[in-house]
Amino acid sequence: MPEAAAAGTSVVGRVLRRIGWRTALLFTAILLPLWGFAELGEDVHKAESFVFDDPLLLHAKAASGPWLDQAFLGISWAGYQGIIVFDLILVVVLLARRRWREATFASVALIGSALLNLMTKQLFARARPSLWESISPQDTFSFPSGHAMGSMSLVTVLILLAWGTRWRWPVLVVAALFGLAVGAARIYLGVHYPSDILGGWAAAIAWVVGVYAAVFYGARRPWRALR
Question: CA 223, CA 70: separation in Å to the nearest integer?
């Protein structure tokens, strides 16, 4: 009996080690962001206010100036039109290199993120902030932020594709800083509440990691082919 128990424990240990990283990935990168989005979405649906939204917006307005206006307008442009161009280039490059699975992952993750954002905006129908007249006015719904969701989707795709290679840390730092800058730009311009940005980030991370898990389930991870 002791030998059987030891053998059983050994088998369980091997299984846990094999699926451990997947379990951790699913929990930290899918379930937690989904929980955060659900919490934000519930309050938005009930039209409840967030204590940090207006103060952060007003703080951003107080710091505004001509050069910051131009800088954040440029970052905001890069976070939408620039993202679209980069997304297309990324998919084309992956296809040209015959990275079929990676191209499928990027395409589904990025296109799906855009469609998901359009649907959730209509679902929550949150009005834009109106604390002041923005220099970049928007007439669509506010939650979740399309700029935040699109940029974070690209950021997550790039990090997952690069992870495990020698480029992982440069990609992580540059991509994360870009995602943060886009979110800050939308708050600075007064066209999104900070909770819109958080909702966009959470939805993007959960969606992209979910697509990654589906596309690469049981297959060779992308970084092994990209070294």
Answer: 38
Q: How would you class 173 by CB atoms within 10 Å of its CB: exposed for 0-12, middle for 13-18, buried for 19 or more?
A: exposed
Q: pLDDT-based confidence at 15, cuts 50/70/90?
A: low
Contact 141, 121 (CB under 8 A): yes
- 204's CB contacts (< 8 A; 6+ apart) are 113, 148, 149, 150, 152, 153, 155, 156
How is the chain split into domains, by residue range?
Answer: 33-226
The full DSSP string for 43-77 is: HHHTTPPPTTHHHHHHHHHHT--HHHHHHHHHHHH
- Give the whole-angstrom CA distance, residue 99 versus residue 224: 12
In whole angstroms, give the CA distance from residue 17 to residue 20.
5
Q: pLDDT (tens digit, 9 = 90+) per residue, 117-137? A: 999 999 999 999 988 888 888
pLDDT (0 to 100) of residue 107:
95
Alpha carbon distance 110, 154 (integer Å):
7
pLDDT at 139: 86
- Gap between the Cα atoms of 51 and 54, Å rounded: 7
Q: At what angle do helices 100-124 and 83-96 cross, to 10 degrees?
A: 150
Quote the pTM value: 0.85
